[in-house]
Structures are given as structure tokens and as C-alpha cells.
Amino acid sequence: MRPVTRIHSRTAVMADENIDTDRIIPARFLTTTTRAGLGKLCFNDWRYLPDGSDNPAFPLNRPEAKGCAIVVAGRNFGCGSSREHAPWALLDYGIQAVLCSEIADIFRNNALKNGLLAIVVSAAEHEWLLANPGIELSIDVEGQYIALPDGGRIGFVLEPFARHCLLHGVDQLGYLLHNEKLIAHYEQQEKAA
Amino acid sequence: MSAKTLFEKIWDAHVVAPETADTPAILYIDLHLVHEVTSPQAFDELRSRGLKLRRTDRTLATLDHSTPTLPAGADGERPYANAEAKAQVAQLEVNCREFGIELHGWDSSERGIVHVIGPELGATQPGNTIVCGDSHTSTHGAFGALAFGIGTTEVGHVMATQCLLQRKPKTLAIHVDGELPKGVGAKDLILHIIGHIGVDGGTGHVIEYRGAAIEKLSMEERMTVCNMSIEAGARAGLIAPDETTFAWLQGRPRVPQGEAWDRAVAHWRTLKTDDGAQYDREVRIDAGTVKPTVTYGTHPGMAIAMDAPVPAARNAVEQRALDYMQSRAGQPMQGSKVDVVFVGSCTNSRLSDLREAASVLRGRRVASGVRMLVVPGSEAVRRDAEAEGLHEVFRAAGAEWRIPGCSMCIAMNGDLAQPGQLVVSTSNRNFEGRQGKGARTVLASPATAAASAVAGAIADPREYLTEVAA
After folding, report:
1. Could you tell me which residues come within 8 angstroms of residue B71 by beta carbon, excluding any fewer than 6 positions away?
2. If DSSP codes are grouped into helix, strand and coil, which group holds residue A128?
3. Is the pTM of this model over 0.95?
4. Partners of residue A33 in chain B, C-beta under 8 Å
5. Mutate to test the interface with A, among B34, B152, B170 (most CBs of A within 10 A)
6. pLDDT digits (tens, 9 = 90+) for B398-411
7. What value of ipTM does the predicted structure carry?
8. Between β-strands B25-28 and B15-17, what pairing exists: parallel, antiparallel or unpaired?
9. pLDDT tens, B160-195?
10. In what helix (H) or strand (E) does residue B322 lie, and over which residues does it extend?
């Protein structure tokens, strides 16, 4: 994984609560055997009209949302399935961070392992971010804060190991493999029991 | 020694390295279940690093998501939805051969939905840690196993190391007191619970279901309850193992035999929450108040008794959900016209579910204009159902009897509903487009699904069950 230290972008708002993984990428596209190129399918059934043209009602199709790498989403973003195709699709679409007052557990795990910042902010800060679309934010992973245009800051907490891996591009499988001795020891004890 | 919850006992027994402020725990995984959709990229990762799969004896694979539920044609060709689905299935066959994994593929008499065959084979056992690249892995918690869904990166971690990096989740006890009324089942109960605590009510937690009403449930019913834990956002759902669990598991292919069985059961009896152990949260539900329950919106938390009025939308998102479903605030779901009925999925495709649906359909017909699909959860369920003649009951009623798979629950194999159609489904998710673009899903029990098929509209199964009994 490449290191992720800072993300600077305008925000786009997707205010709906409970945006589930089937909306992020419908199940019929999960027959792929690679992780590449899923961006064009991201939000497929919401993003396009039946004739294939852009749906103007889809929040990220609005002109002001074009090119935004930070999405402020309604509560409980990413609920539903464990498909890692959801963060793969979002990243390939160009989204690098999702800010929310609550993010579904499996989605958040999957996102952070792929360098997609899934960040939980307080309910009050979430309200404010939802009400102020299009502002320029700078997310600092090292300092764990979001810098606002007026110089203010919103703090957040990432799981410390996930943060370490983001900052240094650490590969978690490498870390697990490095603990081979402990794993072998556990297996021996288990056998003896 | 301090009092522990069931969750803590299983967690503590699997810690390879404890968590610290800087690092998550390294947790050992006893059983890794694999299917075609969420594994190919993980196998590629192993290949690119030159890694082996660490414990082939703790890994079990099957084909279920992308597989057609119609049999092969005269030419031997299976009717895949598209070339990509066919290639994905072929890829798992290749990967299992290359990495030495036991695959219950097309030629296996035990193939089926991953969460149905794990328990059937006795691979699912109390006290185990079980993972799969599928959120409904929570199903296996019915046996007192800590079982949860993971993403594909983590599938690769388990393949290579048999371990996962995990922060310890919180615990939520759901006490279900009293007794379920006659004609009300496990599916009604879990929909009622999710309606009560909300679609994110379990986020960050492992749920332990307990209380008199839970103890009375059969293993199949417990699986239905634990299966939908993820629909409340929970990491996992657990039920302490008891005599019902042991009786169900005894003699299955992968459980210990003879003296080893006795030793295993003696250990399994210790797997319950100690008196005085503390949960992070507790909720109480009165089973006596549960009625036949269905969903009315676009997530499983939007659930109510079918005869209760649909609540008014509290915000624009809820209004959009009601509009999508064509549900009307103030009106009950009961009586809504039905186009398709689906009985199947890892929630409700076991023999007892099929018996429940058949008991309503016996001697009756699916209403004209309604399409009904019955998809058994596994080849074993299919065999048992056919031995009892259930397939004849379904066919005589005008329903389609298919071969095992996830089918219309996830609708990625070509089994799907058309835009605007209302589907009464025994599956677990009613998200927009889940069963086909524009399709409207109402989650329900097998009895409610069958009664709705006969009535051509959402119907209370108790009216049909009483008639059969008389």
C-alpha cells in the first residue's frame, strides 16, 4: 500500500443515511476476479439513468461535486455486505476519504486497509459538514485532524495501527508473517491441549 | 478468576498476541470458509508473494453465489448468467487445486450455500473462531462460535497466516424473555429485534442472544437469528451451546467421535456467560409481543408487524424509501399485491424452512400472476426435501424447485426480479436493487412467504396454518 499522509480536496455531500454496499457497487458486478477498473461501476444504479446518461439527482453528478476526493456521507455509510469491491470501486472512482458520524464496521476495516480514509467525526461536526458542502478541507493523518478553511480544526481518532500503516505504507500481511514464531507457538500449544 | 461472557471466553482462547495501545490482537482462526466471489484477488496476492496457504485442513470451499440454480442442459453446459460468472467459478476450482483446498464443487454431494454446509458437515463447532469473506458468516454463531465476515484483504491474511488483526469488539446482550406465540417464528423474531434496535444498533458489538425464548429455538431457528446479526450492524451474533446444539452436531462428518466427542462436549458445556459477567450493553425483548413481521422500507431495520400501520417518514431519506417501496404511511403491509416469492438464502433455506413453506402450500396453488422460486440451501437439504416429497408439494402448487445456491438473495446468478416487482423474500437484505434493479423486497418468514404466494398479496400465515391443522 502506498502511504497516505494528507488529503486536500473540496467536499461533496451524500446526505442519505445507510448508503449500503449494494448501492456502492451492485452485486451483479461482483463476478470480477480482479480489483481493477471498478470505478466506472461505482454507484452504478444510482448514478446513471436507464438510457445510460448521468442521473442529475445523483449527488456526485452535480457540477460542484466533480473532482471532489472527500465525501461527507449520511450516518451508517457502508452498511451491508463485506465486499471489498466497495472501497476498491470508491478509490477507483476518485474518492479518497469518507467522513461520517458512524461507519459500518466491515466497510471501515476494508477501507483503511486499502488507503481509503474512513473517518468518524462527532454528530455535531457531521451536521456542520453536511450543511456546508463544497468547502476545502485538508485531512492530516499524522496529526489526526481536519483543517477547515477558516483555520479551525476537527479532530478524529484512527485505530493506531491502521494509522501507522497508512502513514508508512505498511503492509499488514507482512506484519502478520513477521509474527510467525508466535503463531507456530500457538498452534503447538493447541495441539498439546 | 473474574466472571466472563461467552464472547470473552472464545476471544481469550484464540489470542496469539494480545492487543496493545499500538497494535490490535493477533487472533487465531479455526475455520476459514471460502467461496468464488470474495477469494480470487486473495489467491492472486498469495501467488504474487510466493506464499502457501498455511492450513488447508482448516479451510473449506464451496460454490454458491455466482452459480446457476437451473441444472446443466443436455449439452452439459450450465446456464451461467454470463461468461464472467462462469470464469469466476472455474477460477475457484483452479485455485483450490493449486493451493490444496477441499472444494465442495459441482461434483460434490455436499455442495451448497457456505453458511448451510459448514454446520451440516460439522465443520462449525462451539467455541471456534470462524471467518469467511461474507457478512452472513454470523450464522455460525448459533453454535456458540465467534463467526464474522471479512474483506478480501483479510481473506488473504487468513490464507497465509491463519490469523487476523483484530481490536476487541464490545458486547451486547439481547435477552428474549417469554415465549413466541403460535405461528410466529425465528425470522419474525429477528426482524422484530432489528426493527427495535435499528440497522446500526449493533455496530461495534458482538451480540449474545439469550433468555427463555432463545433456549427453546431449534438449531435451524438459531441460525436464522444469528444470520441477521449483521443487519443490525453487529460484528457477530452468538448463542451459548446447549443440549440442543450437541444433539444436532453429534455424528456429523467433521465432529469428534467416541471418547473425543465426550471430551469435546464436556468443554463445550463451559461455553456460557458466567453469572455476574458484564456486557457493555443489554436490551430486553418480550417474545410474547412478536407478530408475523415484515419490512416496509429499504433496510432491514424498517420492519414492523404486517398488520401494523407503516410509520410516517421522519426525514427525506425515509420518505424516499417509502416511495421506492410504494409503501403508504398509515396503511399495513398486509394485503399489498405480490409479484414474486422467494424461499431460500442462508437465512431460510434449510429443511425446516422448506417444511414450513410446504405446510402452507400443501393442497393449495400459488396465485395466478405470482412467480414462486424455492431454492434449497444445499444438496443435502435438497436430498432430504425430495425424500419427503416437498419438491412435489412445491411443484404441484406451481412453484419452481431449483438446485442449491444463493440465488435471488443476492441476484448475481441471473435469478432476479424485474423493476417495480414486489418480492416477498425469506432472505436477509431489502436494499434498493438487491434483488434486481428497481425490484422491491419485503423480508419475511418462509410461512409468510408461502401464504403470500397463495393469497397473491402479503398474508398472515396463521390463517393458513390453522386450516391445515384442522
Report:
1. B78, B403
2. helix
3. yes
4. 40-41, 87-88, 91
5. B152
6. 999 999 999 999 99
7. 0.97
8. antiparallel
9. 999 999 999 999 999 999 999 999 999 999 999 999
10. helix B316-325
